[in-house]
Amino acid sequence: MIERFSPPATLPVMHIDTITSPELEWQQEALCAQTGADFFFPEPGSSVREAKRICGMCPIRAACLAYALDNDERFGVWGGLSEKERLELRRVSR
Ligand code: SF4
Question: What range(s) does the 4Fe-4S Wbl-type domain occupy (predicted)?
Fold first, then answer.
């Protein structure tokens, strides 16, 4: 069983979905699942430094970033990259 956090910008309160797809089993090692989603979906203009620090220690960082890019995740820090950094990565990858 995996908890997935959706950004508060898209939902009125923190929302947790249960994902059981075997394709997402890598998320069981997610360090952010142990810290909570607040660091990863900060208010606009807030620092993402702590989220990036946690991502830097996460054993599934590459898979997380690939998932975010493949699924066009628009909000929050995924795989150690902010929303703006993922947009820039997409732009230069075209
Ligand atoms: S890389 Fe960061 S956002 Fe992705 S699973 Fe790990 S801690 Fe969470």
Answer: 31-88
Question: Using one digit for the tens of pLDDT, what is the confidence trace for 61-77?
Answer: 999 999 999 999 999 99
Domain count, the chain: 1
Cβ-contact 54, 60 below 8 angstroms:
no
Which pLDDT band, with edges at 50, 70 and 90, does 20 fall under? low
- CA neighbours closer than 13 Å in the CB half-sphere of residue 26: 13
Residue 87 in marked binding region: no
Q: Is the pTM value of this prediction over 0.85?
A: no
State how far Cα 48 lies from the chain centre. Answer: 11
Nearest CA to ligand 1 atom 5: 30
Instruction: Tell me if 24 is assigned to a ligand binding site.
Output: no
Q: Please identify which residue in the block is written with the tokens 């947790």.
A: 16
